[in-house]
Amino acid sequence: MATQTVVLPGEEVPSNVLPIPSNPNHALKLGPGLRHTPPSTITCTLAGPLGIDYKKNAIWIENNSGRYIPQTGDVVVATVHHSSAEIFQCSLTPHTAYAQLPQLAFEGVTKKTRPQLSAGSLIYARISHASKHTVPELLCYNASTGKSEGMGELKGGMLFDVSLGMARRLLMARQREEGGIQVLDEIAEKVAFEVAVGRNGKVWVKSGGVREVMVVGKALQETDKEGLGMDEQKKLVRKLIKGI
Fold first, then answer.
1. Distance (Å, rounded) from C-alpha 82 to C-alpha 99?
2. What is the rounded CA–CA span in Å between residue 175 and residue 126?
3. Do 61 and 44 form a contact (C-beta atoms < 8 A)?
4. Distance CA 77, CA 85 (A)
5. Which of 13, 113, 205, 206 is the most exposed place for a label (fewest CB within 10 A)?
6. Which pLDDT tens digits describe the chain residue by residue (244 residues)?
7. How far apart are CA 1 and CA 18, in angstroms?
8. Which pLDDT value is given to residue 2?
9. For residues 175 and 203, is the Cβ–Cβ distance under 8 A?
């Protein structure tokens, strides 16, 4: 699991805590709350625990109460606000600028087959470019393979808000071991459902009925809000499943 140390705005990240990649050609990935000043100074812009993933050569600051700051490579659940010319203008959060999703940024589409998305449509996408000087840009396919890999329009279901820290934990490859999250595994033993987790604190849930969707969404939100441990998550799921 990632090592964490609490940091404050203005502090420099000590070089001895930075991850050392197994491949020297892999650049260090800076996440939210960190700023790079050439040649090698990394300064904190937020207060919170310092998260370090040595395997991915990544470092970031957890700040659940702060607003989402778009980062290149993040997967997000976006809401189409409106379209203009060849672009869908999408909302990531109420406090960030609209992200731009080209209408051809889907697997295998052409001008004749591009999706017709109306305001309110939900999209699962990856941020292809983000900086403080430009609006975020989105893609609904893997730029390396050209395949959607689960990205695109999210039809049906419901959207739930979670903290940014919870979203990051849910996106870990090994939720149970690395993120301390097993609530979804517990529910999956009883209920079939689909989820799409956005780094922007949005979780889309779809299942066979409204009750099942609400069980998944409530379980996630309560685990997040109450900071439930593994045993407490099991108890919560047992309680919620009884209502189905």
1. 11
2. 20
3. yes
4. 22
5. 113
6. 444 578 888 999 988 888 777 666 778 888 778 888 888 899 988 887 787 777 778 888 876 666 788 988 999 999 999 998 899 999 999 888 899 999 999 999 988 999 999 999 999 999 999 988 899 999 999 988 889 999 999 999 999 999 988 998 899 877 777 678 899 999 999 999 999 999 999 999 999 999 999 999 999 999 999 989 899 999 999 999 987 7
7. 15
8. 43
9. no
Q: Do 60 and 30 meet the contact criterion of CB atoms below 8 Å apart? A: yes
Helix axes 230-241 and 210-226, enclosed angle (nearest 10): 150
Can you read off the two tokens belonging to residue 121? 């449509």
Secondary structure string (H, E, C) spanning the chain = CCEEEEECCCCECCHHHCCCCCCCCCCCEECCCEEEECCCEEEECCCEEEEEECCCCEEEECCCCCCCCCCCCCEEEEEEEEEECCEEEEECCCCCCCEEEECCCECCCCCCCCCCCCCCCEEEEEEEEEECCEEEEEEECCCCCCCCCCCEEECCCEEEECCHHHHHHHCCCCHHHHHCCCHHHHHHCCCCEEEEEECCCEEEEEECCHHHHHHHHHHHHHHHHHCCCHHHHHHHHHHHHCCC
Structure tokens at 199: 């780094």
* Cα 40 to Cα 206: distance, rounded to the nearest angstrom: 45
Q: Which residue is associated with the tokens 């870990």?
A: 172
Q: Which two tokens stand for residue 194?
A: 């689909």
Fill in the amino acid letter for 121.
S
CA distance 187 to 47: 34
By C-alpha distance, which of 242, 90, 210, 226 is closest to 162? 226
